[in-house]
UniProtKB/TrEMBL annotation:
Keywords: ATP-binding, Nucleotide-binding. InterPro entries: IstB_ATP-bd (IPR002611), P-loop_NTPase (IPR027417). It comes from the Bacteria. This is ATP-binding protein. One of its GO terms (molecular function) is ATP binding. Coiled coil: none annotated.
């Protein structure tokens, strides 16, 4: 997945700025601590002198000059930690901090792009911000069961719309709480306006807040991007298309609203199958009934979804219409 030079340089400048900010923060911590506890500066000077003395002993071996450097530094480090704590500082107060402990704010781990780099790239190229504003309002904190009546029931389960929504929310939280342990898929289906997209947004918000790599697409945007990548060799589309298979969670919303053809069907199967094989989680929502879904796509796609995803049907009245009738509440 390649970024153009300008985009790559922008990301690396951001990493350099993080490193500089944390170095300035460390320098200020050292200044404050030295000013309050002069012995700390003496300890750091003694450690530097011991390291130099050990290096000379290694270059010019002499039994009388040899000593255990680790033990000597260990004693001084213990004294430094004790002094910091006595004066109300944390033991790591003088250490250099990092936003990402894995790559130490370099963007790379063992010459491979760190997960934080991938997230930063997505923020630049396509970004979770395409739903970030929506997630400020569409989240579990604002989720309400009041729009799901008890007098509408699912004949197949005997559960009311309210009970069905409560079960879907329970399963959504289970999906979130065990996300890192058990990659899987959720398939929301049901009539227009019963909360499928809203529930997907709620899940996305929770996982983004837990620092997972989430990508959200309407089905139209997803297949439009894949078409640009395939037929137009669009550079930006190519960068984002690669993330479709790598992100922790892919959300495909309103599947069935796109113009379906052989290309769409093949790309959908490839996407679903690759993510299953790579143990990556996916959420799909659709307004299509199961028989219409099977007719629109292939039996092969339906089989992969039905055997690997938790199927959750939401029922009830159109929530958007209910909100309008209630004055937008």
């Amino acid at each position: 997945m390649s970024l153009n030079n300008f985009q790559y340089d922008a990301l690396m400048r951001a990493y350099n700025e993080k490193q500089l900010n944390h170095k300035h923060e460390q320098d200020e911590h050292i200044r404050q601590a030295y000013e309050m506890i002069p012995r700390l500066q003496e300890i750091d000077g003694e450690i530097a002198s011991l390291s130099l003395k050990k290096a000379r002993a290694l270059l010019l071996p002499s039994p009388k000059d040899d000593f255990d450097l680790s033990a000597a530094i260990g004693e001084l480090s213990e004294e430094r930690t004790a002094l910091l704590q006595i004066h109300g500082f944390t033991p790591d107060y003088l250490e250099l901090k990092y936003d990402c402990p894995f790559c130490k704010d370099t963007g790379y781990v063992d010459n491979q792009k760190c997960s934080c780099f991938k997230k930063a790239a997505v923020d630049l190229l396509y970004t979770q911000s395409n739903i970030r504003e929506i997630l400020e309002t569409e989240n579990f904190e604002n989720f309400s069961f009041e729009y799901y009546p008890q007098d509408i029931t699912n004949p197949a389960t005997g559960l009311s719309a309210l009970e069905t929504a409560q079960d879907a929310v329970d399963k959504a939280w289970d999906f979130i709480d065990h996300f890192g342990e058990h990659p899987c898929g959720l398939f929301f289906y049901g009539d227009t306006g019963v909360g499928k997209t809203y529930l997907s947004h709620c899940i996305a918000k929770e996982l983004i807040d837990r620092a997972y790599f989430v990508l959200y697409f309407s089905s139209f945007d997803l297949f439009d991007l894949l078409a640009k990548n395939t037929f137009q060799k669009d550079a930006a589309a190519s960068d984002v298309a690669g993330f479709i298979y790598d992100c922790d969670l892919l959300i495909i919303d309103d599947l069935g609203t796109e113009l379906t053809n052989n290309f769409v069907a093949s790309q959908l199967f490839c996407c679903i199958n690759e993510r299953i094989m790579n143990h990556k989680s996916t959420i799909i929502s659709t307004n299509l009934a199961m028989e219409d879904f099977l007719e629109t796509y292939s039996e092969r796609i339906f089989s992969r979804i039905s055997s690997n995803y938790t199927m959750l049907k939401l029922i009830g009245n159109d929530i958007r219409i209910q909100k309008k009738l209630l004055g937008g509440k």
